[in-house]
User: Fold these one by one.
Assistant:
Number 1:
Amino acid sequence: MKSFSAIRHIFGFQLQDALRSRWLTLHTLVYLCISEGLLLSTGFADKTLVSLINVVLFLVPLIALVFGVIHQYNNRDYTVWMLTQPVERRHLFSGLFLGLTVPMMASFGLGLGLPFLWHGGLAGGQMLRLATLVGLGSVLILVGTGVATILSIRFSDRVKGIGLVLIFWMGFALLFDGLVLLGVSAFAQWPVEKALLGAMLLNPIDLARLILLQTFDAAAMLGYTGAVFTRFFGSAMGLILATGALVLWAVTPTWSALRLFNRQDF
Amino acid sequence: MHLFHPGSPQPVTVTDLHKSFGDLTVLAGIDLTLHPQQTTAIVGPNGAGKTTLIKSILGLVRPDSGSIRVLGTDIRSGVDYREHIGYMPQHPHFPENLTGHQMMAMLRKLHGPAHDSHTALLRSLRLDGELDKPFRVLSGGTRQKIAAVLAFLFHPPILILDEPTAGLDPVSSAALKDHVRHRRDEGACTVLTSHVLADLEELADRIVFLLDGRIRFDGQLDDLRTATGQERLERAIASLIEGEAA
């Protein structure tokens, strides 16, 4: 149980640091203001929930990547010092990584959800939609901080690290669908639908979009790859496949970061 | 009180250590034994391999070949050997919103109860009022002093101090050096890197000079002066570098 106890202690102190952090307060306030602003301007919980889809798909990964990479670079000297203590690398990584992601997820969930509470609560279906938004946003936070951690370990130059997370975000959030569409039109005479489905599984933001829009029953907003995916598999099968792929996305960057951390020279 | 007993393994034994980063060879076969009750200064120009050698002992850098034993235990066998090492980094950084007391509490959770000798160092470094303030409001010098206290917290038999007095005021610098000497007299094995030559003259019993990843000189300060014919340490080290470059 020594390992679990080391992770718990390191995580506990990271949590104490995060709870007093101005950055985390700002992070909560950003989502709180967006949620509150949308509720006040639309006047309806349903419309607000639909508008929050784009917040989750675009803003959450961007903030997780940028905040994650800056946090990791700022804490690099501390991490190195902790590595000189009698604690296994994998336990140190787990404690530090949980100390970054758990407060971010909690702050995101609170910021997004609290305004609904003081505006009169939500009906059953709306509650499920909000939970899906918070759940998928949390998965995207995990993906973003995982990728940010990999880059911060791999590149000691913080300018390079920050540049690469921005390229990662632009690639997956903005360019991916357009590039796929370009590929389809360029190879229109070939059977490219299956390749397209494969491409969709490579993009966590597309996967989250697909699950969200299925939950919200708003197929008109699926985007090109999402529409093909749903047509091919039908909505139930598509949902299961997308969820499975997203779970893989949630695990893979963190696992890769841990492997890199274990063998990296600091 | 002595930290080592007769017949106990040497604090640190480095054998045929090699390390390269890509095409750059940083350590090219280091053999070094560090003894109890001795302060060893590792010196050399930038890029000589000092930091990589120290990081290898601390387990931060994985050597390509060779071995390092701490108190007789190969460091590849686990992390427990680090309980015997106190490390003071050149640029200490701690979570901005935590305090010195919280860092001590965390280390106690990882190591076990602290030795009470650190209270003397706390007093001599005049840190009493600073340990409840978050690190974000503390000056670089105060963080450095807290890093020193954390390195000495568990009364470790091996101390690794990387530029320990850089950024300290003269009073604190003198207090820290007194403490290092006191611990040496108690039997501690201390490794020191410093560009402040006065520190080396005051603290070092032994000088290990590295150049291009190899040990080019290993001996006492007086031996260095005799070997180079230079009375002043700065001139003696410069003479070593120039001699090797020629």
Number 2:
Amino acid sequence: MKKLLSCMVLIIVISNYAKAQTGLLKFTMGYNLASPMGNFKTNYANGISPRGFEGDLSYGINNQISLGIGFGFQDFYQKFPRAIYGIASNENVSAVLTNTIQAVPIMAKFTYTPLLGKPVTIQPYFSAGAGVSFNSFNQYLGEFSWVNSSTTNLAFNADGGILIPFKKYNVSSAFQLGVGYQYINFNQALANNLNTINIHVGLILPLRSN
Amino acid sequence: MKFTFKPGWFLLSAITFLLLQGCTKNITSSYSYPDTRIYIAQRDSTVQYNTFKTFSVSDSITIIDNGQTYKSLTTTGQAFIDAMIKYMKQNGYTLVSNNANPDLGINLSYINTTSSSIVDMSSYLDYYSGYWDPSYWGYGGYGYYSPSYYGTYQINQASLSINILDLKDAVTNGNRIKIIWNGLIQGEGIDDPTTADTQILHLFQASPYLKAN
């Protein structure tokens, strides 16, 4: 009898996992750290940006695949010590130079959760996104805005990490920890791309279910 | 299909909005007064600065305050005049009085504007000619002129403008006194006499060609 009861509980658990995200609309929101790479790091912002967040709205096609819209925001800031810059053939300026870049990517996002539907506590996930990023670049000489531009550029993202459900048999709410790479085709003189390695933590919450 | 809206949606929307509002770093929050300042050195590319040997500096500052113009000599003004003399001498030029036929004349102007605009030398020269009569340099009846030095800078506060004048070649320049160098200082707290020396030093560091030898 005891064995039969155990089997029934296991069947219920597995059946819950079996429809773990199918038809579920989820909202993910998290804090993001972004570390610039390449020319972006060398010429614009060489420190890790702690001012960012990322999230997505996704719909579970089945247990392994969800599709949705990913979005984010990251603010990069770099202040360079006073130096002399040639701003024209007959003009030099001595100034503290500061760069600020704000990137707001919005992407179509594909997420793969290979073990969803199986009774494991920690769920790995992988995701990829493609879309555009709305970027604002400001360069200051002293307190004066010297360059001010807004661009819309192609953006790509690849991400992987783990999901830790809050309830053992319910993955609609979970803690997320991930590491990703983001590419934004910035196309500016001193950096073609805004390449960053991102580390993020977030929460997944359900918005609606079938 | 059953739709169930969760309160988390509204909560996270609110958080998103707050994050967007608060996540951008204010650049001036990490700036000291000196960090806000820029020192722009502009020159006439056709001039050989080592062909000049002597200079004289005006004995007061021209104040251009939202259309009102007058001369003044305050502690701050004197500190800037002294610093100009110091660094001109360090760069090999010899100080002489204004009536001793100096090769170069140096005028300092404090410009206070309350609106954003482009630095416009033509209107500035109108004031300049009125209050620094070329006769001060022994060239009565002459006028001032300037090459196109100025770019588009946003002026929303006080500026200190320093001009170096070519007196030596005034006759060959068609009886006109040519402004061959301009130093422009903008930013916070520029009228602090204790920083005048450093501020003038920054202008000279941006003008490595400004040497008599």
